Amino acid sequence: MTRRDEPPTPERGPAGASGADALTRIRAGRPTLPPSERRVADAVIADPAGSSELSIGVLAERAATSPATVLRFCRTLGFGSYPQLRLALAAAVAHERAVGGERSALGTDIDPSDTLEQIVKKIIYNEVRALDETARSVDPAVLGRAVDAITAARRIDIFGVGASAFVGQDLHQKLHRVGHIAFVWTDVHAALTATALLGPGDVAIGISHSGETEDTVEPLAAAAARGATTVALTNFPRSALAEAADLVLTTSARETPFRSGATVSRIAQLALVDCLFVAVAQRSYDAAASALQETYTAVQRRRRRRS
């Protein structure tokens, strides 16, 4: 990909009706909003049903800001006007209500009084919801371009630390099993060293839930400077990692104070990894199927056999 002094706008999932619902978009955009607009986001998230019925002036009062700031908030997150925001919120609320009252309660964080049964239900519910909202947030066009780039790549370098490192290792192993030259780097020094060998025709993939992990952002930006095609897998499409990428694939997992860095974010990331891998393997279906069988057979003798 040809680089200019002004980097191209990264390709992301759509912000409109074909993307994630309004609440998903607001939660994803909230961390990068200015303080005044963040207060609008907090007011809407706290009471989406009520907010969908408020005039712009009343919502501004609730958020301790001005109607002009509410309008900026709408435009920042891709809503063309305040009426469009209200309509989108009403649709999101209707969807939540269709799910049912009991399930809405399951969307809350773990409470000290929860029984073990309630803990299990809440965790499973939130993981299923993250997968559902991630599926609705994926833009097939952007995913397709990522698949094209990976399929044609000379080599693929994957960056991720902490919990995202496990996701990176999963993607590396999957790509390696179908014959792609792939590497995973979980140490920033090793990652930066690897980027020095990248160039046009290579692909670099950065994985970070927050999109603000410097040990992942820096190598991805370095790979972009070398001319590699860069892909970000993150929950926040306005994050630093997303800004460093040509292609942005977003998850939609809600982390809460009690489950910060929770499995739910990794499950959403792993689902996107599976989408990438299966789509890449499909491009060379027979060869990939053969490679998967051969690599499966290679470790079969390591399995215990019961008499």
Could you provide a short overview of the structure?
This protein has 15 helices and five strands. It is an alpha/beta fold.
Describe the structure.
This protein has about 300 residues and is of the alpha/beta class. It is about 55% helix and about 5% strand. It has helices at about 20-30, 35-45, 50, 55-60, 65-75, 80-100, 100-105, 115-135, 140-150, 165-175, 190-195, 215-225, 240-245, 265-285, 285-300; strands spanning about 155-160, 180-185, 205, 230-235, 245-250. The chain has a 5-stranded parallel sheet with strand order 2-1-3-4-5, sandwiched between helices. Helix 2 (about 35-45) packs across helix 5 (about 65-75), helix 8 runs parallel beside helix 14 and helix 11 runs parallel beside helix 12 (about 215-225). The model is unreliable at about 1-5 and about 15-20 (pLDDT under 50).
User: What's the overall geometry?
Assistant: globular
**Largest sheet, strands/sense/barrel:** 5 strands, parallel
**Which structural class fits the helix and strand makeup?**
alpha/beta
- Overall mean pLDDT: 86
- The strands making up the biggest β-sheet line up spatially as 2-1-3-4-5
